[in-house]
Design goal:
By secondary structure, the chain is mainly alpha-helical. It has helices at 8-20, 44-65, and strands at residues 24-27, 31-34. It has one domain (8-64). It has a two-stranded antiparallel ribbon. Helix 1 packs across helix 2 (44-65). The longest helix is centred in the C-terminal third of the chain and has 22 residues, at 44-65. The two termini are 28 Å apart. 10% of the residues are buried.
């Protein structure tokens, strides 16, 4: 059963955070960094963005190390 989305903007924040995990930006000469959370700290959209980033991180970690990584 698929849950109906109540707040699509929060879903967009989650998806943006998930996509940001695999993006890098160029800063100062030749240094590349992962994208930081662009939202105001302590807000619900900030938490949703971070939750999406964390989901992508742990999914990638499980691909690299196997399913026992998250213990």
């Amino acid at each position: 059963m698929v849950k109906k989305v109540k707040n699509s903007s929060l879903l967009n924040n989650f998806e943006d955070g998930y996509a940001a995990f695999s993006r890098v930006v160029k800063r100062k000469s030749n240094f590349f960094h992962q994208v930081a959370n662009p939202l105001k700290k302590g807000t619900t959209p900030y938490r949703e963005w971070q939750r999406g980033w964390n989901a992508a991180y742990f999914e990638n970690l499980e691909k690299l190390n196997g399913l026992t990584t998250r213990s």
